[in-house]
């Protein structure tokens, strides 16, 4: 087994899906900067990302429709837009450690492409598109539901973005924007936990824990909004 095959084995284990056509997985991980201009359409992840974005939207819309039977169209649309965005997909990519698996051109690699939200988000959608082409809708649905469930359960789907809401709340009161501080990182590399504190001048720091910095920041902002009675505590 080649080194690349061994890498694919570990990645497919993390994905929870084994490809019948490993070439699809290679394409899903390949940025256009690593491909000569004449072959970018054929060999990069661009077309797979386009497809995966549509599959993701369908599956998440279905999840929301079933999860929130009393929500109206506007509420469901806001929830969909909160979940199906590059930042959320980038967090999924980081959880799966996709950055180190990506194939990037030399200049893109030097500029930190493996940690850019835009690229990581695209790769997550390309992986979804590749799974859909390789195995159909059900394995793609299983992949999405498993990884996006945490974001639904965290309340990000049925509320406006907590960090944005807190920043607007502070701005309306003439305060400096809130800042987020990493207090502690614990747990193994494959399942880390981050403790993040939110600081706002004149208020006590509030801390929250999450499986990524961004989720912990969101939870800390949400905790602050609840503490200040801007939001109600979720039941």
Radius of gyration: 19 Å
What strand line-up does the widest sheet have?
A: 1-2-3
Oligomer: single chain
Gap between N and C termini, in Å? 51 Å
- Strands, total number: 3
The topology string of helices and strands comes to: HHHHHHHHHHEEEH
Write down the overall geometry: globular
CATH third-level topology of the largest domain: Ribonuclease iii, N-terminal Endonuclease Domain, Chain A
CATH architecture term of the largest domain: Orthogonal Bundle
The low-pLDDT segments are none
The CATH H-level superfamily of the largest domain is Ribonuclease III domain
Number of helices: 11
**Tally of separate domains:** 2
The CATH C-level class name of the largest domain: Mainly Alpha
Note the main sheet: 3 strands, antiparallel
Give the fraction of residues assigned to helices: 55-70%
**From the helix content, strand content and strand pairing, which structural class follows?**
mainly alpha
Descriptive report:
The protein is 57% helix and 9% strand. By secondary structure, the protein is mainly alpha-helical. The chain has 2 domains: 3-153, Ribonuclease III domain (Ribonuclease iii, N-terminal Endonuclease Domain, Chain A, Orthogonal Bundle), CATH 1.10.1520.10; 162-227, Double Stranded RNA Binding Domain. A hairpin with a 6-residue loop joins strand 2 (193-199) and strand 3. The mean pLDDT is 87.
